Amino acid sequence: MKRILLLLLAAQFMALIAHAEEPLAIERRDSAEVAATMQQNTRKTPFLPTNRRVDRNINKNKFVFKHEFMCGLAASYGTLDASDADILLILDNIDFGLRRTQVLPYIAYAYKDNSSVGLRFGYEYLKGDLGNIDLDLGAAADIGFSLSDVGLKSENFAWSLFHRNYIGLDRRGIVGAILEAEIQVKTGTSSFYMGSGEDINYSRNKNFAARLNINPGIAVYVFPEVCVTVTVGIGGLKYNQVRQLDAYGVETGRRTHSALKFKFNVADIQIGVVAHLWNKKKN
Asked: Does the predicted model carry a pTM greater than 0.85?
């Protein structure tokens, strides 16, 4: 009888041990499966700062909406004459005038919010006349010269492809910043003359230029479909070629120049008006 009781107690004890080890086995198995899943996910999408993009919410404020068509016009006009040269005290008897006109119509399409591509056409006309100018550095320097009857006229045409990114600076989408990259090709002619009457001499140049320009700026909506833009050139990569011809069209010289330069160019400030042909803001 004692043996039977001992056997029953031993069997019950073994059953209790087996029942206690079963949850531990299940927990170990679940832990192993979780670890294997985490390791597999880590292998598929490793965290590397170079390939994981951080969202800085730059495009949160929409200034231009996807599928908008835009047409715009930028223009500039400037003059310079003898009254603007009073600071040049060493120059006397100044009689000159300079006129510069530039017109830049363009069209653009927004392929996504706050990003657009476009085509621009440009026309530039420059004319300057120098009637007389004298330089006198004084008796001690014994240096002086005089120029008269000198003129310059230049006419150029430009074609460019540009890409613009906009950053809305307010939640209503009225004020925005512009970052523009432009590939431009320019061709044209310029003529130079000196003298008057029968002693006048002419020379003519054929110009070619290719440029990669960076033009930041700002835009402000003055009406729901119309905004005013101001951009300024800060330089980029440029290549220029000038061929000089005489009065008979024979090439007498050639000059090429290329440079990579970044600077704030006051002479390259453009003020424009842009019309949005599809006002997506109403939808």
From this structure: no
